[in-house]
Fold this protein.
Amino acid sequence: MYPGVGLLLASGVVPLVMDWRGLVRAFRDVPSLLRGRGDAEDDLSVDERVRFAKPLVIVSLVVMVVVGHTVFHLSPVATLIGFLLAVVLGNVCGRSAGETDLAPTGALGTLTQLTFTGNGHIASLFAASITSGVGAQTAQTLWALRTGNQLKASPRAQVWAQILGVVLGAVVSVPVYYVLVKAYGLGTEAMPAVSAQSWKATAEAVRDGLSTMPRYAVHAGSIGFCVGVVFAAMSRGRWGRFVPSPAAMGMAALSPFSLSFSVCVGGVISLLISRASKSSETGSTLLSIAAGGIAGESIMGVTIAILLATGLL
């Protein structure tokens, strides 16, 4: 497990370090973001955005403080620190999404977890989830607004649609989550929850500091981290496409063999089809097929979970 954690940490930290110029630019954006300065080229003026955002930010902060204190028994100070980190690192995620089309949400969540080293695994997970959630929603919002801009859609309508989606998503996803956990468990062979496992491993590693970790765990994690640093650095060079992904290797180390094997088989089949086909549309077709397969499996999995939970299966 610990070599996988080291690989995942390297895959998250190294890109941030290598893209330090974007990180600096993102930090420089924070003052203007807080002052509400920027271009107003759509039907939401800068003043309207600021007036619209301030109440939502205040309500969100109050809800996070209350939930953190009543449910997770965290001090308001820890929640406030996590919130401030989320604001800054969410801006970093937005800058990265705009410049590279990639959102390092996992890396930023890991960075937040490391910030809370020695403060308990609940504090690190709670703060990291805030950062990762803010970063993911920032990137998704920017991508959606960019697409809407190209289609001449109204930014105001998009914002209201996203708010509606938040409400409907919460109403649907929470009951579905409880049904899935009741039917399959969490972190089991049937429901491996790979991303959650990596976060759990990192939280356990930083829970009480390195001294409480199992024997040789630090050595194994350090070796995995060093290997991940080398691979992550090499992936930026001319031979990058031949270098294994440290993130994929770390995920594989934390996942059941059946899941990793299935991903490997799917990748090999995709590669063979791409090499055998001469059509330029092959890549898009394979992505569509894969997306349909994931969606179909997800819907069927939820359906089976509901049948199991209700005793009909």
User: Anything to note?
Assistant: Residues 258-313 form one domain.
